[in-house]
Fold:
Amino acid sequence: MSQRRFAQAMNKTRLAVICDSMRKEDLPNVLVIESLSFAEPWTEEMFLHELDSARIAESLVARVDEGVGEQIVGFLCAWIVSGELHINNLAVHPGYRSRAVASQLLDAILIRAYAKSVTVGFLEVRASNEAAAALYKAYGFEPIGRRRNYYEHPREDAIVMRRQPL
Ligand SMILES: CC(C)(COP(=O)(O)OP(=O)(O)OC[C@H]1O[C@@H](n2cnc3c(N)ncnc32)[C@H](O)[C@@H]1OP(=O)(O)O)[C@@H](O)C(=O)NCCC(=O)NCCS
Structure:
């Protein structure tokens, strides 16, 4: 990243992004963000499976154009099934965090869920992931349970969170 881009990224004001559907050609950028964000990153095959499951899967990317061409700065993968929203993956490029990118992705998925008359939302988060837990709490998700040793590398419990009504 150039010094100018780094300085921009360090500007902690809200970054206006466009949230729209993930496409196959977005995957190289999505995979970079994924690997920078998780100890056990999803593989390309896992994202392709989401894109091939269009009946239930809603995969979004956050795009930004800061004058040097469009760039993907975050993504969200969810399922909308049986009247339920399940958020399965969410990450923002480390250089663009704390600028409301995840918030805008959550806003976008909630709008899609409302359009499909969804009434409840679920997700799992690592017990130690304070940033994500704070984000989800700010969005009205509440802890409702714990799955023991749900994650590996490091092994850790998952906190199950629910937002109801959505
Ligand atoms: C969690 C994550 C998606 C947040 O993305 P983001 O774009 O930085 O989040 P936002 O700027 O929209 O933050 C919205 C709110 O979330 C909370 N939040 C976000 N980052 C936080 C942090 N580091 N510490 C505490 N609260 C945080 C705050 O309540 C924040 O509101 P505020 O800015 O008014 O204080 C991002 O840190 C990330 O990609 N982390 C690695 C991957 C990950 O953990 N994904 C979630 C898996 S369940």
